[in-house]
Design goal:
Layout (H helix, E strand, L loop, with lengths): L1 E3 L4 H13 L4 E6 L3 H16 L4 E6 L7 H7 L4 E6 L5 E6 L5 H13 L2
Parallel strand pairs: 1-3, 2-3
Antiparallel strand pairs: 2-4, 4-5
Helix pairs in contact: 2-4
Length: 115
């Protein structure tokens, strides 16, 4: 799991760009901080580890890590999770109240099949 806290924006943005450029992986990004987000991250980590060769979890604690372009592309109004397919395109957005272990697995599975 890649955790981007926002403490060093330049480094975090470089790390994010490198992670997004990884080939043959689907990426799940979780946005925010707090107890509820930490629980989502724990569930997402379990699902990403199930197929760690093709799944990548990125926790963006501080939204300042996202450039304006990435913010517009990945962060809808109230989603806390976005999943990108193998081509790096968003294929699923989840709001906080939609996140369950099964919905995270389903989002990963959908991303793995949508090219």
């Amino acid at each position: 799991m890649l955790v981007l806290s926002g403490e060093n924006l330049v480094r975090d943005r470089e790390s994010l760009s490198a992670a997004l450029a990884e080939e043959f992986t689907v990426k799940m990004m979780v946005f925010g901080k707090g107890n509820d987000i930490e629980e989502i991250v724990k569930m997402a980590e379990v699902r990403s580890q199930a197929f760690e060769d093709v799944r990548r979890l990125i926790w963006i604690v501080d939204l300042q890590v996202l450039t304006t372009e990435k913010l517009e592309k990945y962060k809808a109004e109230d989603n806390v999770v976005v999943v990108l397919n193998l081509d790096g395109q968003p294929v699923d957005f989840l709001k906080k109240d939609e996140v369950k272990l099964l919905s995270l697995e389903r989002a990963f599975a959908v991303a793995e099949t949508k090219v």
